Amino acid sequence: MTGLDLSSPVAVVGTGTMGQGIAQVALVAGHRVRLYDAAPGRAREAADAIGARLDRLVEKDRLTAADRDAARARLAAAEHLTDLADCTLVVEAVLERLDVKQQLFRELEDIVVEDCLLATNTSSLSVTAIAGALRHPGRFVGLHFFNPAPLLPLVEVVSGFATDVSSATRAYETARAWGKTPVACADTPGFIVNRIARPFYAEAFAVYEAQGAEPATIDAVMRECGGFKMGPFELTDLIGQDVNESVTHSVWRAFFQDVRFTPSLAQQRLVESGRLGRKSGQGWYDYTDGAERDEPHTAEPAQAPAYVVAEGDLGPASELLALIREAGIPVREDEEDHGSRLVLPSGGQLALADGQTSVEFRDVVYFDLALDYRRATRIALSASQDTSQQTLAEAVGLFQALGKDVSVIGDVPGMIVARTVARIVDLAHDAVAKGVATQEDIDTAMRLGVNYPLGPFEWSRRLGRNWAYSLLDDLHLRDPSGRYAPSLALYRHAYASDKREGSTS
Ligand SMILES: NC(=O)c1ccc[n+]([C@@H]2O[C@H](COP(=O)([O-])OP(=O)(O)OC[C@H]3O[C@@H](n4cnc5c(N)ncnc54)[C@H](O)[C@@H]3O)[C@@H](O)[C@H]2O)c1
User: Fold this and answer.
1) How confident is the model at residue 135 (pLDDT cuts 50, 70, 90)?
2) Mean pLDDT of the chain
3) Which residues have CB under 8 Å from 83's CB, separation 6+?
4) Which atom of ligand 1 is nearest to the CA of 39?
5) CA–CA gap between residue 277 and residue 275 (Å, rounded)
6) Is this structure's pTM higher than 0.90?
7) Is 466 assigned a catalytic role?
């Protein structure tokens, strides 16, 4: 099946931020587009705004003047909803309220032709619930674009309980014909991206609330060690704390207050105080004129250790051994495997974050998970008050000798990147097991929708089948609230590997 015929007019109802973006996408793809908005004059203003954006594309040589003129000629503002009668697709982007959307679709159903596809751009309401208002819910689908729609390629195509396969396919093919990358998903809270991305924010806020590190340090570690484009604090300041918090709340409520999605008290305080981020001049950071930029904690230079002893397999951090040797520090490999650690001359140990706390062991410093230890420019270390100063100094000196900035954080189990990635991997496995989407679509959605450097399944394969499960299991033991309880799907994944490898542990 292919997408919509280009001769078919497309309607966009609700011409605010998203409606304008979606209309521009359909228009540039070659459709005639009708804009309708309940607020008088708003559709006309939206048409002018889209026209101005097309002008800028021409200035930037991304659209020819002739194509711009043709597109403008295909765009029209509708006075009445009844002007949409001959459209074969209506995309709704009105206020995020169930009663408003249901009422609109009830009216539309009486106006449009029988084979008109009806789509909602809702980000937090149930597609199934909106369709509850329709006589023919089979033709109703979610088409979830991301902001700004003309730039971001991802579109989640959401099938409600009653959506016909043919309607979902038509929506999917249409999004593809519009130059987007569609992914198919079931109608569950947050769809793919807004569900699986929750720990990216929540774990950073939790580390901050646990006095583990300041926002600037956590952001720097997530970027420079974790490989994320932006840290959670700076990103939520950009999105708006109110907007981000409201998505978190809606997913948490929709999952019957599942503890894994619990909102952050610190973020709530921020919202309550009107510190909404860049748009209000203050959020986690201060954007007022002349405000000083918060700098991440970066350790003072320390002496590199004379040698290290490698015990066992460092798993996802194995590449460190080559880097240490390249830095001219001898690595002795210990035949006896006492665990997966580097032993420092002080007798203290350095271990990859694993969900345990430093205080539980004699003289252990943990280091965080890096996307790529060679390319990482910063590494986080966690130590407890019992860690010897010499061990910590040797650990700092070791990573500095590899050319990394070092941030020392509190004794937070699972540290920053490791706990975040483990939880994202877990939610992704859980989502596949619950039929939300395929592994491939989840990877695509997280890379394109929120710019992650790797999809959760790509990450999971890289880290090894047991890695996320074992880290979360350790965290769950230390925080039995259920927040870190690994899902049955992740358990199955890890257990299957044990059986396959013949292990009985
Ligand atoms: N803003 C985002 O980042 C984003 C991203 C993805 C999805 N969404 C979803 O897209 C939808 C629109 O969001 P937005 O940010 O563009 O909102 P917006 O406030 O910018 O625009 C909404 C528009 O809908 C109009 N409207 C309200 N009720 C109407 C009705 N009954 N009939 C016709 N027009 C009506 C308003 O006049 C307004 O112009 C929401 O469902 C939202 O959840 C938003």
Assistant:
1) very high
2) 95
3) 34, 36
4) 37
5) 6
6) yes
7) no
